[in-house]
Amino acid sequence: MKELENEFHRKARLVAKGFEEDSLDEIPKNSPTCEKQSLRLILSIIASKRWSINSVDIKTAFLQGEKMQREVYLRPPKEVKATGKVWRLNKCVYGLVDASLKWYEKVKATLLDCGGTVSKIDSAVFYWYNEKGLTGVLAVHVDDFLWAGSSTFEKSVVSRIRDMFKVGKESCESFKYLGLDLSQENETIVLSQQDYVRMLKTVLIDKDRVKTSPLSSSEQTLLRSKIGQLLWLARQTRPDIAFDVAAISSKIKSSTIEDLKKVNKIIRKVQNDPVSLQFQNLGHDVKFILFSDASFGNLPDGGSQGGYVVFLMGDDGKVNPITWQSKKLRRVVRSTLASEALALADGVDCVISLAALFKELMHNENDLMHTPVDCFVDNKDLYHAIYSDKPVGEKRLRVEINAIKQLLQGGELKEVKWIQTNEQIANVLTKHGASGQDILRCFEKGLLNSSLL
């Protein structure tokens, strides 16, 4: 049953047991979907272009994909009553490992035929432009499209999509997309997850249970489920809970009642303090802002947590949130300097790709070779190592430091700046107890501390 405009409609789907097919490893199956940071960057561009956001849902998408190149036979469902017969598939049905890929190939061919260009950075992002610049953009997530553009773009491209595919629900300016609540008013787009947050349930815990009591197998399963729900929330709209959720996740095998109580506390926190992301019109002159931070050896296994947050900032100091990460560093390090350097390297890797995507989408609208990128760190040793000719003592670390130096020399990074620890809004991504108010204020108000401008 599916609810549509307060009415319930019966739906049935033919599902193949694709896992039973021979030679699964030899079948190409990887299908791109629009990345989170790409979607937020697109929302920022849409706001600055003063375009309306739109979504399109494609009906029975897999059955509209490219024709199959191999022979696959299917036993009909018993309800068909086709005894002694098998079906040969012409299209990939739901359940086959390459169903998503065949659908993507059809979408890509159609959009390219409509004059679109597929992004070199994110293969699920397509854009259109003329001699004046960008005229339209479309993000693909399987059968859900998000698009925006000029009136000409809608007439020449979106209308062809409606003709080429069986289109389901279409929405404009206020709708749910991939579990995210999107709304638009004037030149601002608001992204939130309030409907999702309201559905979160705390875990019932017997008051007589001691907090150090180990969890039963069923309780561990329940804890994993809650962690999964909160991790998705942390990655989409709530960076302030990312470290605490990751810390609980890291000790799941030795989890206790105390961990369940921590999860309940996080759920109550996100329900009592709602958060939304604001995407504003930033104007023409923009740059990327990266804050990176690390905590040396603060994880139970001796590892270190690294984190970063990236904003797109206009010349008046307004910012739009683009992406963030809170993650265990990829190797064990020997010093605070090393942990901070690896966290910065991870952030730089991300922001460089975002800057490339931005330049790609803003075709012919910016004469700069690179979109400026400013990096902020609160570790003086790292700052001095980057701007000093003297190599750091830890030889393995020289690779990371020199890579950042080369990006500065080549202009892909504009500057690395040192800031006070109390100005480092990425702190909440790497340590327990750090305030998340600064980063959330940037998300909701769209303004950075004026001292950082």
Automatic annotation (TrEMBL):
Pfam families: RVT_2. It comes from the Eukaryota. InterPro entries: RVT_2. Residues 6-200 form the Reverse transcriptase Ty1/copia-type domain. This is Reverse transcriptase Ty1/copia-type domain-containing protein. It comes from Mytilus galloprovincialis (Mediterranean mussel). The lineage of its organism: Eukaryota, Metazoa, Spiralia, Lophotrochozoa, Mollusca.
